Amino acid sequence: MKALVVLDRVNKHFGELHVLKDISATVGRGEVVVVVGPSGSGKSTLCRTINRLETIDSGTITIDGEPLPAEGSELARLRSDVGMVFQSFNLFAHKTVLQNVTLGQTVVRRRSTREATERAMELLERVGVADQAAKMPVQLSGGQQQRVAIARALAMDPKIMLFDEPTSALDPEMIAEVLDVMVGLAEEGMTMVVVTHEMGFARRAADRVLFMADGEIVEEAAPDSFFTNPTTPRAKDFLSKVL
Ligand code: ADP
Ligand code: MG
Q: Domain named ABC transporter: which ranges (predicted)?
C-alpha cells in the first residue's frame, strides 16, 4: 500500500509540555486508521499537525509525496486536500446548509455556483440531509449538523479525511447516523484518520488502531488483535476502562 501521509520523528511542545514525542507513522492510501487513547495523550494535536493547524518543532510530515511547508500558498493547497471534521461541527452559522457546502468549492476550488450546488446536493443526499439544504445550521439536530460538516469536507474532494471525536458532542441516539456515514466512506475506500472513543466503529471500520499515551504511539495493531490482545499495560488499562 502506497503511503499517503507520512510522519517522521515529529515533535511538538506546548511550552514545557512535550505533547508529541518523536512520532513516526504512516497512513496508506485507502487505509482507515483509528486513533485511541486517554484524554490529553495528544490525539487532537496529532490530527491538527497533519494539516498544519498546529506547527511542529521538528520532524517532517509528507502528504502524497509532498512535504508539508510551514506556510504560504503551497500550504493552503496541501491543506485543501485534507478534510477535517471536529467534535463541534463548526458550520458557518450565518450560512444555509447548502451554502456551507458550496462555499469552499467556489472560493478554493473555483467551481461555478451551479457546479458547486450540484455537487453539494449530491453530497447532502448521500449523508441523508438533502431535505435540510435551505435551513440554517441551528435548525438542525447535532447529528444532522455533523453530517453536513462531513459533506462540506467531502465537497473539496480531499485525499484524506481526519475526524477528531466526531460523535463526542452528540446525543446518544444521533451517534449511529454519523458513524454509518463514516463506515460508508471507509467502505468506499476513503483514506481516513479517526480519533474516537467508539470502539464499535474501530472494530467495524479500522484497518489499524494506534493507541496513544503521553504523546507517544504506544501500540499499533489490527483492531482484532488490539482489542483482544493488547500487549502493553497502558493499553490494557485503557481498554479495561472503555470497553
Ligand atoms: P487529546 O486530544 O488526546 O485529548 P490533546 O492533543 O488535545 O490531547 O492535548 C495534548 C496535551 O496538550 C494536553 O496536555 C493538552 O492540555 C495540551 N494542549 C493541547 N492544546 C494546547 C494548547 N493550544 N496550548 C497548550 N497546551 C495544549
Ligand atoms: Mg482531543
A: 5-239
Query: ipTM, 2 decimals?
Result: 0.98
How many whole angstroms separate alpha carbon 15 and alpha carbon 117? 44
What average pLDDT score do residues 27-56 get? 95
Distance 8 CA to ligand 1 centre (A): 20
* Closest of 72, 49, 73 to residue 62, by C-alpha: 49
Give the neighbor-by-neighbor strand order of the sheet with 191-195. Answer: 82-85, 160-164, 191-195, 32-36, 208-213, 216-221
Bridge-based pairing of strands 82-85 and 66-67 is unpaired
User: 3-class secondary structure for 164-227?
Assistant: ECCCCCCCHHHHHHHHHHHHHHHHCCCEEEEECCCHHHHHHHCCEEEEEECCEEEEEECHHHHH
Write out the three cell numbers for 229.
Answer: 490482545
Distance 197 CA to ligand 1 centre (A): 17
> Strand 58-63 vs strand 160-164: parallel, antiparallel, or unpaired?
unpaired
Ligand 1 pocket test, pick from 17, 43, 216 with the greatest ligand atom count within 8 Å of Cβ, gives: 17
In contact, 170 and 146? CB cutoff 8 Å: yes
Question: What would the pLDDT profile of 198-233 be if each residue is shown by its tens digit?
Answer: 999 999 999 999 999 999 999 999 999 999 999 999
Q: Which residues line ligand 1 (CB under 6 A)?
A: 14, 17, 19, 37, 39-45
Cell numbers 455537487: residue: 119
